[in-house]
Write a structure and sequence with these properties.
mainly beta; seven-stranded antiparallel beta sheet; four-stranded mixed beta sheet; 1 helix; about 15% helix
Length: about 160
């Protein structure tokens, strides 16, 4: 092979390698301009999760599980009709935004406009959510312009702490 061809191949390889380094190191934008939303995992917790000296909790984080997630505008507890069991709701009286389904590993990603949202998990007993902020907004999540909010949604009504 002529020397000039070898030099050209090395130059192309060097440029490609440097480009790959910049791309994988986060030097370029990871999302489209104006892209934002929520991503994360839905996790199932059940059983006795109370740590004791004799028994170690085997899976305190929980196991990924596939579920439907219903997204509403930010919802306070007085905008709902609670179901019989704690953490469950029969009806949400705020604006419904979107329904998404996780994959088998419990992962999800949804593009949303910047704003505040409440997330509920569809279960047989009703819509489940058990986190509140200081204003009694249910499972609140803020989406900021150009940012992705990463969260874990914990379903733990079958767990004891």
């Amino acid at each position: 092979m002529p020397k000039s061809t070898i030099c050209h191949v090395l130059q192309v390889f060097s440029v490609a390698f440097i480009g790959l380094l910049f791309t994988s190191s986060g030097c370029t934008a990871q999302t489209k301009k104006g892209s934002q939303g929520i991503s994360g995992t839905v996790l199932w917790r059940s059983g006795n999760l109370m740590p004791t000296p004799d028994v170690k909790v085997t899976n305190p984080k929980g196991s990924p599980i596939a579920r439907e997630i219903l997204i509403y505008e930010l919802t306070s507890s007085n905008q709902t009709e609670p179901a019989d069991d704690a953490g469950f709701y029969r009806k949400i009286n705020s604006k419904f935004i979107q329904k998404i389904t996780t994959n088998k590993a419990g992962r999800f990603k949804v593009t949303l406009p910047a704003g505040y949202y409440s997330l509920f998990i569809k279960e047989d007993k009703g819509l489940y959510a058990n986190l509140f902020d200081d204003a009694m907004n249910i499972n609140p999540v803020q989406v900021r312009k150009g940012k992705w909010k990463k969260i874990d949604i914990i379903i733990d009504y079958a767990a004891v702490y």
